UniProtKB/TrEMBL annotation:
The gene is trmU. ATP binds at A6, M7, S8, G9, G10, V11, D12, S13, L32, G125. This is tRNA-specific 2-thiouridylase MnmA. Residues 276-353 form the tRNA-specific 2-thiouridylase MnmA-like C-terminal domain. Gene3D superfamilies: Adenine nucleotide alpha hydrolases-like domains, HUPs, Translation factors. Pfam families: tRNA_Me_trans, tRNA_Me_trans_C, tRNA_Me_trans_M. Keywords: ATP-binding, Cytoplasm, Disulfide bond, Nucleotide-binding, RNA-binding, Transferase, tRNA processing, tRNA-binding. It catalyses: S-sulfanyl-L-cysteinyl-[protein] + uridine(34) in tRNA + AH2 + ATP = 2-thiouridine(34) in tRNA + L-cysteinyl-[protein] + A + AMP + diphosphate + H(+). Its main location: cytoplasm.
Amino acid sequence: MRVLAAMSGGVDSAVAAARAVDAGYDVTGVHLALSANPQAYRTGARGCCTLEDSRDARRAADVLGIPFYVWDMAEEFREDVVEDFLAEYAAGRTPNPCLRCNEKIKFAAVLDRARALGFDAVVTGHHARLADGVLRRSVDHAKDQSYVLAVLRPDQLAGAVFPLGDSTKAQVRAEAAQRGLAVADKPDSHDICFIADGDTRGFLHRELGSEPGDIVDADTGEVLGSHDGAYAYTVGQRRGLNLTRPAPDGQPRYVLSITPVQNTVTVGRREALAVDTVTAERPVWTVPPPVGPFDCQVQLRAHGEVFDATVDYDAAGLTATLRAPASGVAPGQAIVAYRPDPAGDVVLGSATIAAAARAA
């Protein structure tokens, strides 16, 4: 089988490529150049968009003895990931760019190009398990990335290979060292790869400009402060609210909602964050969807808590009724449904959260 190994320059993708070679696949390495100006994205060993990362990926390919290429995906990445990220924040939502990157770049643009060139699949270093077309959590729950892969359709999963799902991160690093890969001790990437300094609020301000508005109390309607752009806030946020006067009861306030049309950020008491009904749009199923309402577990943010729920759906969207309330559920994030299984939780599908509420 001919496979294309997506090599970011990190330890996970390097070991994934090595395991693909060991499995007897005909492996070609490719590094995705995601920025027209690599220095404009994250520098050092914290991201996947730098010249250093490209060189690290090439050195790993040399050690493995596989062909290596760099593909310029900067235009597609800017349009499908960065612009989507900005549009979502401008609309008062909190997107997850890793979801969009997997959906639009790694398993759409890259997989389509790979298949056109005669490759059978794309290998990545994601920590998730895939067998017989079924996507499951990684054995290392602390590093599990099935949440950000739940946007993939069955035909895309059929063209994916995830060699690391049965290993912990510590095991991957130890294996990299044994293989003589220089990235064995390279730090994991953090934050958002295309925000060079890690300052998301500053990035949004530079890209979207200043849009002053009010921060109001949900209970009284009083103006408690002001903001330079509602996009700088997310549901559940407590710190950095820029309140110029305390709430009437003197208790801390949390962001409850963001209304772009009125350019208003509404804050309130912590208990007002509790929700038990989540509605979502644009569902994507990794397996044939269950018939009618079904019981499952749902995860509402990357590496977040798991909740027992009943999900009902149609072509337009889904509604999840949680057994216990969740807090700080932000529109724009994904809701991912899992089926508990002794062999490892099965990913059923995902959708983009549109709203969340507390039943009367």
